[in-house]
Amino acid sequence: MAIFSVYVVNKAGGLIYQLDHYAPRADTEKTFSFPLDLVLRPHDERVVVAFGQRDGIRVGHAVLAINGAEVNGRFTADGKDVLEFLANPANYPVSIRFGRHRLSSNEKLMLASMFHSLFAIGSQLSPEVGSSGIEMLETDTFKLHCFQTLTGIKFMVLADPRQTGIDALLRKIYEIYSDFALKNPFYSLEMPIRCELFDQNLKLALEVAEKAGPFGPGS
């Protein structure tokens, strides 16, 4: 079981804190001969697998590195277009590492804002007055848990579907936020959280939750 990441979103929908706690590694590196037996296409400023699956490489996986050098979006480390490079028989055999695309800071900001909007839509769609909004989204590989305070701050945790004790963890994170962010005289409300004590106590809380599940009294 694992806790993947934590997001804190202010009442306006802005991302004010994000922590990647654990990222499952699903990278696959293979050496290919010409012609490449996978169909690659540009997508959102990166090159992804559009057709063909083999040896752990799946449709949607992005090209992360070529010959051991990290790619930069749609370009190799030395500035060449990835698709043009892989279309040239002279560049083979070639080693390519595929894997899940890592979210950039801008993408995390955008996704946090999108969830804020979905949360509001969920509240309005509810047949009951005063709905709390989206509290959990579930997929086959992770669950997104959300806790909103009375002041509109949202705490979101992405975790393994089997991870227990997330409700208690969310309230523990709120307690840490109150103790080490709100009580910090240098912190301004609704602004990004940059506090070493907040970081330290949050990471400790995540480790405790992973190992022990629910928080007990006085934890």
UniProtKB/TrEMBL annotation:
Q: Which InterPro entries match?
A: Longin-like_dom_sf (IPR011012), TRAPPC (IPR007233)
Q: Where in the cell is it found?
A: Endoplasmic reticulum; Golgi apparatus, cis-Golgi network; Golgi apparatus membrane; Postsynaptic cell membrane
Quote the SMART domains the UniProt record gives. Answer: Sybindin (SM01399)
Give a Gene Ontology cellular component term annotated to this protein. Answer: TRAPP complex
Q: Which CDD domains match?
A: TRAPPC4_synbindin
Biological process terms in GO annotation: endoplasmic reticulum to Golgi vesicle-mediated transport
What family does this belong to?
A: Belongs to the TRAPP small subunits family. TRAPPC4 subfamily.
Q: What does this protein do?
A: Core component of the TRAPP complexes which has a function of guanine nucleotide exchange factor activity for Rab1 GTPase. Plays a role in vesicular transport from endoplasmic reticulum to Golgi and autophagy. May play a role in dendrite postsynaptic membrane trafficking.
**Whom does it interact with, and what assembly results?**
Component of the multisubunit TRAPP (transport protein particle) complex, which includes at least TRAPPC2, TRAPPC2L, TRAPPC3, TRAPPC3L, TRAPPC4, TRAPPC5, TRAPPC8, TRAPPC9, TRAPPC10, TRAPPC11 and TRAPPC12. Interacts with SDC2. Part of the multisubunit transport protein particle (TRAPP) complex.
Q: What is this protein called?
A: Trafficking protein particle complex subunit
- Origin species, per record, is Toxostoma redivivum
Lineage at the top is: Eukaryota, Metazoa, Chordata, Craniata, Vertebrata
